[in-house]
Design brief:
heterotrimer, A mainly alpha, B alpha/beta, C mainly alpha, A: mainly alpha, 71% helix, globular, B: alpha/beta, D-Maltodextrin-Binding Protein, domain 2, 2 domains, 10 strands, disordered N terminus
């Protein structure tokens, strides 16, 4: 993107203007995400930078909103912070409970989506796969169909089959409806990422393995699996994030006491938007940075393994 | 001896487990109001019976319970709803009928049916509070003091955003009152198509200045944040924000609209027996009086009134903050539940069409 | 998984073909090669299909079936049919256009009495009210007083409320007597049946849906356009920078993509509210007065800004992957041949990016049309989209059939766009970072 030295002055001006425009657009992309981080340390219950914050006065900052995440919903928030206080947090804090639920739902939904999805991606990327295009279209559709339609359909469907009363040995399976729905929403991501790693997959590797005497099982675990693993993991992470961030289905089909982080945030944003929401947001941003880094590293590794030049 | 000890602790552990296994789901309006119910009804109820109470928030519990019963998937045992909704849902067969004989009598032995304020008991509901929709304002953000409901609609005298509940109920009445209809004629006017047009025409004059709220916790927040300068609100929420949290909020009692909130049991509630127990417990004389010390809503029993004292801070007299205080009743309108039972569907439909236009 | 491992179907053939010398190619077991190939191919097809089958079954069960049920609900509304047996029988017996006689009113009164007993007056009234606003109370009131009515029933009912004689009411009841109806689709586009059965537009103060479909379309187009304008320069920058630098900058695009939607919406609320960061900054800089704070939230502006931000990565990524493949020497050649940089861009570079624009724009548009969360939180009343109205009818008004009809219309639009996307871009080319 360097400017050629024959560029005219006008072109030079345009070039620098262009860079400034790009910088502004990047700022537009990233600033809203970063702005919540300092605000979550606000000592005052406001959503804006206080003069003391701007003066970088340590008094203007505090961890009180993070503390609020722990204490909100507790039985005895003011008790001395010993073991029983922490037990109280673990048992009763609304945000901690929401986090627990989000993780349980996210993990099971991810397992379902990744298991079924990887298997299907293997089938879909075979040249012999019949009706490939049509099936692919169906499997990707949960990503395309507006979530409100999916949630509405599930609301009627789950009520009609009374899924909330389904039980194993008298134990009503909690979150079953949400887990199944989130798995469905995560599937397109798994399919896309795994088929993407399989696109460059050299089928002759399998053949070579078979020629060398490996049975299909060995071939799969020693050859195919290591090569598609980065795709599978990225797909799983996508599926997890999809579930972890999903609120509409939870609002429509979740039992009223089934709180998740996004649902708790949703309620908070609609009702009493307190800076505590910003501290949750900050934590979620940190998590997404970690996930993004993981996926990027995996992508590069996968490209290296497959010998595809990154691009 | 040691063995006995082990057995007894095991038993104690078991009974404790069995006790906590029993629970009911109660749906209410969230925020300061639910908190008052948790303190006055929920905690003592659990202490006495061992039945755990799960409180679930809703913007207006009538809607989710109707959806639950119609979808055939009920998880709520008790819900706190407005008068017209209690009657409407009962008419539609969505609520359990409640035998009033099971309600405890007043301390002096007066039977419950006589002790409750007139109209507080319906086929399917038992009232717990009298509350009202009022106009509230932030005195720091408003130049001058509004004195009548008409000031709410006067953008010249009091410029700034207005908060209004996203619902036809109370909104249309206030619009008519502000347009000069006396309280006694509001429902008569509103029964005619011209009256409805007139109410919407009045609302049109401030439409682009309105911020709509749905949850009762929103208006105090909107006022405190300065997002609006005036808002309709439930009076108890404003009281709590002003007295308990020290926000500079004031209530304009002129044009307030009084209503009951009733406890109802949705048809097919999973724990009906315990729900009835809770209902009887929560609406006895003492509990209703207790609630009034947490939030400024009037108890629905006559015998509770005399027991209402001070707010939780120990110094604020609750009396003058009640919507039923004579001072506050000068230009009050009592919600006509029959009107809303019959017109709720069509007026809300019209309201939503108007909102989207 | 191990029983269905990918074994190459050609392996068997390759392994045994070596032993064949001449004549028609045959396998070791004597079958012809052609047959064996076909057999092994169909086996491979079956295997591939078996791998996909569990997922397909899962998606059909948890996704396709519920949506099918939703569609059924848009044409199926049995409340009247199930609760008004006598009147339904009368409608069945008398052809359309029959003026309701005393027997019809007798049936009506019998049903009203039944409603009082079954407590379904509200349900039936609500069903009729959907098509004839204001008539719900007729049924609740009628059921309450039905016991006391005496023949002749026609006069008795008309005395109770003259609206019982309204031909429009009878027309609606006749149509409601059948559990299947297309009327919710009519309502979803602001149409209704007149008393004589012809289709007309609803009263002006009740027309909302077409306007909302229009607004959804217009805002989605605007958002798509804004996203394109913002995405184009940075995608170009990313595609032309050296890889090391562009990978770093790419993170700025991918981070929003990975960040929770609710977090991003919250951020915009913090920035846009009238006591928020942007307004505060403008006041501090003296650009606006303290009482001149700009309303950027709870309206269209908030919806457009936040959604553009949220959907921007979906535009950048496809653009980037197309621009990456454009050979820079074409532009250089054009410049060498005397084109100005603008001409070179317009005639050479831009046309090559059109596939990327198509892919990104379609994707962003599809996602925008069905958006729910962001408009619900920052949209106020004039920034809400059709999705919000569907949610409203599901959760608040409980007019589920109308919600289903609106959802079906939205779905139909999306599926057309999806089909278009598949034809033009190919779903396989969907990439995620």
């Amino acid at each position: 993107m360097a400017l050629p030295n024959y560029a005219s002055p006008l072109e030079r001006i345009w070039h620098y203007a262009y860079l400034v425009i790009c910088a502004l657009i990047f700022l537009f992309l990233i600033a809203p995400i970063l702005v919540v981080i300092p605000l979550s340390f606000n000592a005052e219950p406001y959503f804006t930078f206080t003069p003391r914050m701007l003066a970088l006065d340590p008094e203007g900052y505090s961890l009180r909103w993070y503390d609020k995440l722990l204490t909100f919903g507790m039985q005895n928030p003011d008790a001395p912070r010993d073991l029983s206080w922490w037990a109280d947090v673990w048992e009763n804090s609304k945000w901690v409970n929401a986090a627990k639920n989000s993780f349980i739902i996210g993990i099971f939904a991810t397992i379902l989506a990744t298991g079924f999805g990887t298997l299907a991606a293997l089938g879909l990327s075979r040249p012999e796969m019949p009706f490939r295009r049509a099936i692919m279209a169906i499997l990707i559709s949960p990503m395309i169909v507006p979530i409100i339609i999916t949630a509405t359909g599930l609301f009627f469907f789950y009520s009609s089959i009374k899924i909330s009363h389904w039980s194993i040995f008298g134990w009503e399976i909690p979150y079953l409806g949400i887990i199944l729905a989130h798995a469905t929403l995560g599937i397109p991501f798994v399919i896309i990422t795994v088929t993407a790693t399989l696109v460059g997959f050299d089928q002759s590797l399998n053949r070579a393995a078979a020629n060398l005497g490996a049975d299909p099982r060995t071939t799969f675990f020693r050859i195919t699996m290591p090569l598609i693993l980065p795709g599978v993991i990225s797909g799983a992470l996508f599926a997890f994030v999809t579930s972890f961030d999903e609120v509409v289905v939870v609002l429509f089909v979740g039992a009223l006491d089934e709180q998740t982080i996004p649902r708790q945030m949703w309620n908070g944003i609609r009702e009493q938007i307190s800076p505590a929401i910003l501290s949750v947001a900050t934590i979620l941003v940190v998590i997404s940075v970690a996930l993004l880094t993981t996926v990027e590293l995996l992508r590069r590794r996968s490209e290296r393994l497959r010998g595809v030049t990154p691009g | 001896m040691k063995k006995i000890l082990i057995v007894s602790t095991a038993l104690a552990g078991f009974t404790a487990f069995a006790a906590t296994a029993e629970e009911i789901n109660v749906m209410s309006w969230g925020g300061a109001y639910t908190k008052s119910q948790v303190e006055a009804y929920g905690k003592p109820f659990t202490a006495e019976t061992g039945i755990k109470v799960n409180w679930i928030d809703a913007d207006n519990p009538a809607t989710p319970i109707k959806a639950q019963v119609e979808a055939g998937n009920v998880s709520i045992d008790v819900a706190d709803v407005e008068y017209s909704d209690a009657v409407r849902l009962c008419d539609e067969g969505l609520l359990e009928e409640i035998d009033k004989a099971m309600l405890p009598p007043a301390p002096d032995g007066t039977p419950a049916e006589e002790d409750f304020i007139e109209g507080a008991l319906t086929d399917c509901g038992v009232a717990n509070i009298v509350w009202s929709t009022v106009v509230a304002y932030n005195k720091e953000n408003l130049n001058g003091t509004p004195t009548t409901i008409a000031d709410f609609f006067d953008l010249e005298k009091f410029p700034g955003k207005r908060g209004l509940r996203k619902s036809a109920k109370a909104t249309l009445e206030m619009a008519l009152e502000a347009d000069g209809v006396p309280a006694s004629e509001v429902y008569e006017v509103l029964s005619t198509p011209e009256g409805v047009d007139r109410a919407f025409a009045k609302l049109d004059t401030i439409k682009d200045q309105i911020v709509w709220w749905e949850a009762g916790a929103q208006p105090p927040q909107l006022l405190a944040d300065g997002e609006v300068v005036m808002s309709t609100a439930y009076n108890g929420r404003i009281f709590n924000a002003a007295v308990a949290e020290g926000q500079p909020l004031e209530i304009l009692w002129d044009g307030q609209i009084l209503d009951f909130d009733l406890f109802v049991i949705p048809k097919g509630a999973p724990n009906k027996e315990n729900a009835l127990k809770f209902l009887a417990f929560a609406t006895d004389t003492k509990r209703l009086a207790d609630q009034a010390s947490w939030i400024s809503y009037g108890p629905a029993r006559k015998s509770s009134s005399s027991m209402v004292g001070k707010f939780m801070d120990g110094k604020t007299d609750m009396g003058p903050h009640m919507p039923t205080a004579p001072e506050n009743m000068k230009n009050a309108l009592v919600n006509d539940y029959e009107f809303w039972v019959d017109h709720d569907a069509e007026l809300n439909e019209r309201f939503n069409a108007w909102l989207a236009q | 998984m191990s029983t269905q491992t990918p074994a190459d179907p050609h392996v068997a053939v390759v392994a045994t073909a070596g032993g064949v010398e001449d004549g028609p190619l045959v396998m070791a077991d004597g079958t012809s090669l052609k047959q064996a190939l076909r057999k092994s191919q169909s086996r491979a097809r079956r295997r591939a299909f078996l791998l996909v089958l569990p997922l397909l079954a899962f998606v059909v069960l948890t996704f396709i079936v519920p949506i099918g049920q939703l569609l059924k609900r848009s044409v199926y509304s049995p409340n009247f049919h199930e609760n008004m047996p006598a009147l339904v029988a009368w409608f069945d017996a008398s052809p359309p256009g029959t003026v309701p006689d005393e027997s019809a009113y007798a049936a009506l009164v019998a049903d009203l009495r039944l409603l009082k007993k079954t407590k379904k007056a509200g349900l039936v009234g609500t069903r009729v009210n959907y098509e004839l606003p204001g008539s719900r109370s007729l049924f609740t009131k009628g059921a309450r007083k039905a016991e006391k009515l005496e023949p002749p029933y026609r006069e008795a009912l008309l005395k109770l409320d003259p609206r019982w004689g309204d031909p429009a009411l009878w027309q609606v009841m006749r149509s409601a007597a059948s559990p299947y109806t297309m009327n919710f689709y009519l309502a979803a586009v602001d149409l209704k049946r007149d008393s004589d059965g012809s289709i007309v537009r609803v009263e002006e103060n009740r027309r909302v849906y077409l306007m909302l479909f229009g607004r959804t379309l217009a805002l989605s187009l605007l958002i798509t356009f804004l996203a394109l304008v913002l995405a184009y320069p940075i995608a170009h920058l990313l595609a032309t920078l050296p890889l090391r630098k562009s990978n770093l900058l790419m993170i700025l695009v991918l981070l929003p993509f990975w960040t929770s939607l609710l977090v991003r919406t919250t951020s915009w609320m913090v920035l846009l509210q009238s006591q928020g960061v942007i307004n505060d900054a403008l006041v501090a800089l003296g650009i606006i007065g303290d009482d001149g704070r700009i309303q950027m939230m709870y309206n269209k502006i908030g919806t457009v800004i936040a959604m553009t931000h949220i959907l921007l990565p979906f535009m950048v990524l496809p653009l980037y992957s197309v621009m990456r493949t454009i050979n820079p020497s074409y532009v250089r050649a054009a410049r060498n041949l005397g084109a100005t940089s603008w001409t070179a861009f317009r005639r050479i570079y831009f046309p090559q990016t059109v596939p990327g624009i198509g892919a990104g724009a379609l994707l962003v548009f599809i996602l925008a049309v069905g958006y729910y969360i962001t408009p619900a939180l920052v949209g106020g009343s004039d920034g809400t989209l059709i999705s919000n109205l569907i949610a409203f009818h599901i959760q608040k008004s409980l007019n589920w059939s109308l919600a289903a009809a609106l959802a079906a219309l939205l779905l139909a639009g999306i599926l057309v766009l999806y089909w278009l996307y598949d034809r033009l871009v190919g779903i396989d080319n969907l990439k995620l970072g």
